[in-house]
Amino acid sequence: MTDMRTETVSLSGHGAYRALSLRRQAILLMLTVGLCAAFVGDIATGPARYGLGEVVRTLVAPAEADAQMRVIVWSIRMPSALMAMVVGMALAIGGAQMQTILNNPLASPFTLGISSGASFGAALALAFGVALIPMAGDYIVAANAFVMAMATACLIHLASLRRGASIQTIVLLGIALVFSFNTALAIIQYFAADQAAAAIVFWTMGSLTKATWPKLAITALAVALTLPVFLRRRWQLTALRLGEARAASFGIPVRRLRLETLILVSLLSAIPVAFVGTIGFIGLVGPHIARMMVGEDQRFLLPASALTGALIMSLSSVLAKIAVPGAVLPIGIVTAAIGLPVFLYLILKGGKEIW
């Protein structure tokens, strides 16, 4: 009799787990469909408006489309639309993993100073022509931003290795770095020429208008190389959410896992910011929304975070082009306008909802 009850409970638990997995898969499918719709809408919007049917026909059969339409869709709008998706994926994945390894809901590339460091590096190039990587050529701004973002991540890691350093200490250090870089950026703007100061302001707001196929390829490669690594370590990262001591009791090398994850997150954060400028709140809000939908299981949290970040960026790109007729707003302004109210809502709704 006891064996029968145990088997019944086991079957019931298996059925509940299967139903939960199916629900999570359905959510991922819905996010994918929404992202595809936002992507087509992003291509359809701009200074010249086109119908969705015309855009879809140009995407499916470009050889049969009008020459002008083909150039606008494939050469002008396609790189920026794809860049919006890839940047959203990179920042959201990076934010999700940073929140995981630091066990802090406020952790993200933006709040820990990595994006601010990139802005400082870019400003050095824009204002004074300083090249942190010799022979960077046309990529001097992106190279400077990348170097400073990686240097900031290394500084955060070195601080975490100090004896007695806690997660709260690392987060506070990141906040201090944000203010430090912002102060340095203000000093650079004060001494820079008017044209250079305007370029710095525009860069720090973030923009997709200068997206190119080479930049897109580099950013997509960063996502393609890091995402499989995270998926391979999905169980270790999921266990880390139970606490550092608990994860170590399972035989997980916590310190090495944290270091390797931080390096990969730095790449995911530095490369997009180097190409499109400072983009805030995607790495903070995207993972929280994904976590509310699918939970902490990294098998579902990672793809959900990537899709959510890409969807927010694509919708932000659409809003940036339709908010002011005849103008395209910097994408960073739109993501902040969307992300801040959402994040405040999540906080006011209750901490348990986001953590």
Tell me about this structure.
- The chain has 355 residues and is an all-alpha fold.
- It has a single domain, classed as ABC transporter involved in vitamin B12 uptake, BtuC (Orthogonal Bundle), CATH 1.10.3470.10.
- The protein has 15 helices and no strands.
- The protein has helices spanning 2-44, 52-60, 67-102, 114-128, 140-160, 167-191, 194-205, 213-232, 234-240, 244-249, 254-276, 282-294, 298-322, 331-349, 351-354.
- Helix 5 runs antiparallel to helix 6.
- Keywords: Cell membrane, Membrane, Transmembrane, Transmembrane helix, Transport.
- One of its GO terms (molecular function) is transmembrane transporter activity.
Question: What is the gist of this entry?
Answer:
Its main location: membrane. By secondary structure, the chain is an all-alpha fold.
Which key phrases capture this entry?
mainly alpha, 78% helix, ABC transporter involved in vitamin B12 uptake, BtuC, 355 residues
CATH-defined fold name: ABC transporter involved in vitamin B12 uptake, BtuC
Query: What is the general shape?
Result: globular
Proportion of residues in extended strands: under 5%
> How many distinct beta strands?
0
Question: Which second-level CATH architecture applies?
Answer: Orthogonal Bundle
**Run of helices and strands:** HHHHHHHHHHHHHHH
Pfam families: FecCD
InterPro entries: ABC_BtuC-like, ABC_transptr_permease_BtuC
Keywords: Cell membrane, Membrane, Transmembrane, Transmembrane helix, Transport
Main location: membrane
